Amino acid sequence: MSGHAEDTEISTALHRQTYTASMTNVGSPVHHRIAVEDIANTIARRWQDESNTTVRMLTSTAVYLHERKLVEWVFESTKSAADYADILTQIRKRGIDVGVVLPMPELGRAHEEFWGTGVILYGWIDRGDDVIRFTGPEVA
After folding, report:
1. Cα–Cα distance for residue pair 140/132, rounded to 1 Å
2. Is 65 helix (H, G, I), strand (E, B) or coil?
3. Distances in whole angstroms, Cα of residue 52 to Cα of each of 11, 20, 49, 65, 66
4. To the nearest 10°, the Cα dihedral for 9, 72, 112, 83?
5. CA 71, CA 28: separation in Å to the nearest integer?
6. Please, which domain of life does this record's source organism belong to (predicted)?
7. Does the pLDDT value for residue 128 go beyond 90?
8. Lowest-confidence segment of 10-14, 60-64, 119-123 by average pLDDT
């Protein structure tokens, strides 16, 4: 499955944009310290640096990976993602995988909201150190 499966950390600092192999030292997340737009831009930059795929920003929080047929969309909450459920469904109907990237505490609600849709869920944690840690993928 495409996505962040093997890449669980992204540094948001411009001079430190490395992934690491595993997420350790999971702590309480700091909510919304880093804007979701910044997370999406960092994901896009990382894909551009590491992948042979065309990367395009569909919105300020949605990254499209052309050759991988994948949209990774960063949301602040399950509710905000659910507001886009019809759009996410239309994208999936076109044969494009959809990854929804949410704050880690939202994953339980996201599983309930997107159960059976095939949407790929990723969690992110911002512990205030300018490093975004990812979990997932999990299929809803």
Report:
1. 22
2. strand
3. 21, 20, 9, 10, 10
4. 130
5. 28
6. Bacteria
7. no
8. 10-14
| Residue in 102, 122, 132 with CA at minimum distance from that of residue 12 | 132
Three-class DSSP category at 50: helix
SS3 28: coil
Residue located via tokens 């737009």: 37
> Per residue in 101-111, pLDDT tens?
999 999 999 99
Q: pLDDT tens, 38-96? A: 999 989 998 988 778 899 999 999 999 999 999 999 999 999 999 999 999 999 999 99
Q: Phi, psi (5° rounding) for residue 81?
A: -70, -40
Q: At 111, which amino acid appears?
A: H
